[in-house]
């Protein structure tokens, strides 16, 4: 029987641990009192009972955001910038607690969780400055005595639908530019990791962001989650939807938003190719694969999903990678020295198992891993007997067939499948064969190849001789069925603005 984990006792500031939604500046339970259990994926213990909100409360949050919009948008860019800088400061001040909350609900190691908090805070800092640079322009007119003036204005109420794999950063990456632009927001927090969203609402409250500007609604998977998405898409008071998640859900949200013709930005599924050419520095390439593939236990949309290795170095690279994977320490992210945590739920484990089983049936071989894992948990006081946890050992497969599931499906787990290739043209064709195009990576010492392959890959982002590509100062997004729109960088705030022209005579 599982025990309940006392998360508040792990925090220096226990007030950051909230178990209610946040609407119009008030902390609220579900209007009908229904809750759902939130579970720690590393221990199986219950963290809290969370409100399972109906669609009517999503509508209330939208109404609150609409009512707050005139006064928030009327603030100067400098005033809104000041709020974001205060949020940035508080996120840095409370990074340990925010990281602990994230670690417990998501499972990623504490050091990695704190790294995400720093990354999330960087969007506050970047957009605090970028909000001051949303320039309009004066365009010369062909007509005498006239002047064309273009200004940028906030688009309005924004529905932000965020995923569980980066519970803090995916919120800040959307919320920061929206607030900087003068928009108000309704955040639909993921059922798996709602606490990070609520902790950010606490910080917003502390710095005095007015009621209704930031709202957080939450509910479990199922009918109510579908109804929440439908309300955000169909409600005419919502002008913009920003969504990070799977391609199938993106298609559904796009269809549901058609009746109100909302502005959309979607960051959807990935199937990243990671290419190691025969002239690559293999030690660096192995380090890059580890960073890309096993960060967040492989649960990132930009992680290496198909690893293509040149035939001449295939065996050597496989050996080096396996030795590096042996050094990963799997377990509860709160324990010291842990470098890879659990998957967020049992469905994630089942998908990895399915991909491994399929690849083995088609001739692949396991070099390391290939099975689940039961940790020797040092936090036994918070784990009950017979509780299911969600670990899967970091896995390397060789001789993977091109028709394996892992070749066409995003695994979202700690599985590194190695495919063999012989020439550049062939591997680019294979890399581009996916219907999605979010990120890709490759390692080479050839400068001309760096430029040539970067341009040839059909993705929105390319990492050359690196396995990590995300920064607040550059645009993040994909092509094909990986979605549209960009987050971060100089263009990120444009997603939350409209251009208005004044024709003056």
TrEMBL record:
Belongs to the aldehyde dehydrogenase family. Residues 27-497 form the Aldehyde dehydrogenase domain. This is Succinate-semialdehyde dehydrogenase, mitochondrial. Keywords: Oxidoreductase. One of its GO terms (molecular function) is succinate-semialdehyde dehydrogenase (NAD+) activity. Pfam families: Aldedh. The active site is at 267.
């Amino acid at each position: 029987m599982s025990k309940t984990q006392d998360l508040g006792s792990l925090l220096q500031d226990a007030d950051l641990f909230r178990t209610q939604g946040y609407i119009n500046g008030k902390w609220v339970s579900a209007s009908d009192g229904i809750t759902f259990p939130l579970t720690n994926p590393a221990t199986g213990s219950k963290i809290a009972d969370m409100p399972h909100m109906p669609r009517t409360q999503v509508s209330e949050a939208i109404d609150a955001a609409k009512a707050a919009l005139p006064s928030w948008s009327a603030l100067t860019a400098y005033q809104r910038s000041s709020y974001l800088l205060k949020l940035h400061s508080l996120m840095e001040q409370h990074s340990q607690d925010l990281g602990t909350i994230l670690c417990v609900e998501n499972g990623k190691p504490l050091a990695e969780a704190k790294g995400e908090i720093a990354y999330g805070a960087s969007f506050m800092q970047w957009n605090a400055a970028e909000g001051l640079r949303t320039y309009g322009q004066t365009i010369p007119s062909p007509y005498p005595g006239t002047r064309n003036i273009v200004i940028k204005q906030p688009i309005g109420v924004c529905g932000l639908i965020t995923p569980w794999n980066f519970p803090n950063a995916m919120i800040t990456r959307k919320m920061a530019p929206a607030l900087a632009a003068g928009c108000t927001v309704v955040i639909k927090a993921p059922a798996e990791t709602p606490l990070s969203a609520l902790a950010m609402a606490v910080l917003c409250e502390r710095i005095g962001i007015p009621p209704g500007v930031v709202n957080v609604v939450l509910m479990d998977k199922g009918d109510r989650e579908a109804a929440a998405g439908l309300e955000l898409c169909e409600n005419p008071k919502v002008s913009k939807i920003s969504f990070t998640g799977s391609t199938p859900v993106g298609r559904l949200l796009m269809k549901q938003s058609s009746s109100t013709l909302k502005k959309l930005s979607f960051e959807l599924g990935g199937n990243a190719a990671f290419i190691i050419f025969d002239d690559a520095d293999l030690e660096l390439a192995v380090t890059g694969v580890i960073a890309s593939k096993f960060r967040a236990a492989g649960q990132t949309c930009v992680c290496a999903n198909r690893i293509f290795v040149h035939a001449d170095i295939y065996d050597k690279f496989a050996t080096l990678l396996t030795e590096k994977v042996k050094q990963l320490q799997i377990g509860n992210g709160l324990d010291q020295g842990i470098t890879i945590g659990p998957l967020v739920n049992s469905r994630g484990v089942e998908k990895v198992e399915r991909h491994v089983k399929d690849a083995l049936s088609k001739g692949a071989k396991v070099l390391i891993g290939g099975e689940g894992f039961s940790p020797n948990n040092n936090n036994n006081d918070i784990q009950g007997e017979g509780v299911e946890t969600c670990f899967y050992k970091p896995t390397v497969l060789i001789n993977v067939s091109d028709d394996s599931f892992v070749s066409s499906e995003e695994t979202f787990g700690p599985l590194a499948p190695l495919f063999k290739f012989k020439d550049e043209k062939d591997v680019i064709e294979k890399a581009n064969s996916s219907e999605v195009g979010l990120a890709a990576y490759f390692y080479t010492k050839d400068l001309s190849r760096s430029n040539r392959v970067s341009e040839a890959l059909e993705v929105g982002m390319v990492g050359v001789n690196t396995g990590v590509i995300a920064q607040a100062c550059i645009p993040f997004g994909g092509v094909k069925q990986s979605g549209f729109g960009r987050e971060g960088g100089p263009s990120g705030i444009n997603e939350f603005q409209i251009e208005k022209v004044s024709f003056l005579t």
